[in-house]
Design brief:
Jelly Rolls, 2 domains, seven-stranded mixed beta sheet, 23 strands, 0% helix
Length: 450
């Protein structure tokens, strides 16, 4: 094999310099660099992790922003100079790369910094002239080979509805994200998180209000149709997916009072997923995700406050107020609050009746709901009804849509399991026990294919 050593090769005539003949491979040894317009030497042995570094013309850099944001200072511009950058860890969306021009140089005609803030982004800049400065000649949003554009996860009861996968938890478990997806496909998790409903109060004299529903929190920006009863409660965006294991807590319903003491029951228990917590429903007169109804025996006694602690959109509503009735002021309690409506007030004399629970949120079951087929419809988090005192009262408070338990003249009804419905209050034929609150549920939905 012959070897030629020279410092410069130039053409003999014309404007074309040819290296090698047809079918010949021209190789560049490892470690050698190409310089000139359009030639980038990628610095694979020096991954950039420091908060700042200075680029050299002709070089490309893999930048790791997994721990911190990074700023790169460009070299002084000269016509034909080239630099390039790539997202080494696909974390520019969390910690951006800021590109700062030298002195009065411009980037794209503007004397300001440029920012790369998209996952997997890569960009190549060439300096043209003082008017436009550095111009981005190539940009890619995904440079990762084999990027998974959709979320993948395991946990709970898994079902599918079209291009969406649904994970339903009716008890504690773990939701494990194995692929976080990409904005090119989907990287968002939608959710329904319902807490346990409050337990109904028992009666041994004065009536108790119906119990409040468990807090209802919900996000599903992709869910069709555009309008449905629970739509006003939808958060504008779901959670950004990230790989890892997320413990799921499904709140139990509050226990009812057996009636012998004539007091309220117990508050429901919270449900949690990631950063989302829904508060358990309140018992008679008490606050919670939704508040319990006002107890009879006091004129115009207000129900407990819903959306406690406050979140946006609201997780629930107040309980209804007890009635001012004659001659029996203690026979018309308020209904418990529900996700979509306040509990109704007790009705005044001459026809006294306890208030009904507020309705819960109606959600298309394309989101999934405990085996209900995709395409039907279901309500969550209805309030419990107030109890009655026959024969003076004309009726018990009904349970709100979404699993709220009706009140009763005798033993009241429980909230529906895995609905977050509030328990109904017991009536005065007794002592009469209240109904237990319904347990909560956690449902997670995401697009997993196209």
């Amino acid at each position: 094999m012959s070897k030629i050593e020279v410092n410069e090769i130039d053409k003999q005539s014309g404007s074309t310099l040819t290296l090698g003949g047809s079918g010949t491979t021209v190789s560049i040894p490892s470690g050698a660099k190409l310089s000139g317009v359009g030639a980038v030497s990628w610095q694979t042995g020096s991954i950039k992790t420091a908060a700042t570094f200075t680029a050299v013309a002709g070089e490309g850099y893999f930048v790791d922003t997994s721990s911190n944001a990074i700023t790169v200072n460009l070299p002084a511009g000269s016509a034909g100079a080239i630099v390039a950058f790539a997202d080494y860890t696909r974390t520019f969306q969390n910690n951006a790369l800021t590109i700062s021009p030298n002195g009065s140089d411009k980037i794209g005609g503007v004397a300001e910094n440029a920012t790369l803030s998209t996952e997997g982004e890569a960009a190549t800049f060439i300096f043209v002239d003082a008017t436009e400065g550095w111009i981005n000649i190539q940009n890619a949003d995904q440079t990762k080979t084999g990027v998974v554009p959709y979320v993948a996860a395991t946990g709970g009861t898994e079902t599918e509805c079209g291009d969406f996968k649904i994970h339903t938890f009716t008890g504690p478990g773990t939701f494990t994200v194995t692929a976080a997806g990409s904005p090119l496909g989907n990287d968002r998790l939608e959710y329904i998180v319902v807490a346990g409903g409050g337990g109904g109060g028992g009666c041994s004299g004065n009536l108790k209000g119906g119990s409040g529903a468990g807090g209802f929190r919900f996000a599903s920006p992709s869910l069709a149709p555009l309008t449905y009863p629970g739509k006003p409660l939808a958060a504008p965006a779901g959670l950004l997916a990230s790989a890892g294991a997320f413990p799921i807590v499904v709140g139990a319903g509050g226990a009812s009072n057996p009636g012998s003491g004539g007091s309220g029951g117990n508050d429901g228990n919270p449900s949690t997923f990631s950063t989302i917590t829904s508060t358990g429903g309140g018992t008679s007169c008490g606050p919670g995700g939704s508040g319990g109804g006002g107890a009879g025996g006091t004129y115009n006694r207000p129900g407990g406050s819903g959306n406690t602690p406050p979140v946006t959109p609201s997780q629930g509503n107040n309980g209804g107020t007890s009635a001012t009735s004659t001659p029996q002021p203690d026979h018309a309690s308020g209904g418990g609050g529900g996700a979509i409506a306040v509990g109704t007030n007790g009705h005044s004399s001459p026809a006294t009746a306890s208030g009904s629970g507020g309705d819960g949120a109606g959600i298309p079951t394309a989101f999934g709901s405990n085996g209900v087929p995709c395409g039907s419809f279901r309500y969550y988090a209805g309030g419990g009804g107030g109890g009655a005192n026959p024969p003076v009262s004309t009726g018990n408070g009904g349970g709100g849509k979404g699993g709220g338990g009706p009140g009763a003249s005798g033993a009241a009804c429980a909230g529906t399991a895995n609905s977050g419905g509030g328990g109904g209050a017991g009536g005065s034929a007794g002592p009469s026990p209240g109904g237990n609150g319904g347990s909560g549920v956690v449902i997670i939905r995401y697009k997993f294919q196209n």
